[in-house]
Write the structure tokens for this entry.
Amino acid sequence: MSDVRTIRVFIASPGDLAVERAAFQQVLEELNAGFGDGLDIRFEPLGWEDTLAEEGMRTTRHRRPH
């Protein structure tokens, strides 16, 4: 079995498009179940809220003590 390559797909949309964002994530799940499995690729949805959380962790990690 080979390693699965993860491709992070950034979803940039206004907050009032929750239905569309959910539909996009469903499409990625369907791609993972069919196309992705066959090629050892996994699509991972990444929303702006995820990047903010990661950025906060990065900033905290690199902050110098006073």
In short: Residues 5-62 form one domain. Residues 18-39 form the longest helix (22 residues). The chain has one domain: 5-62.
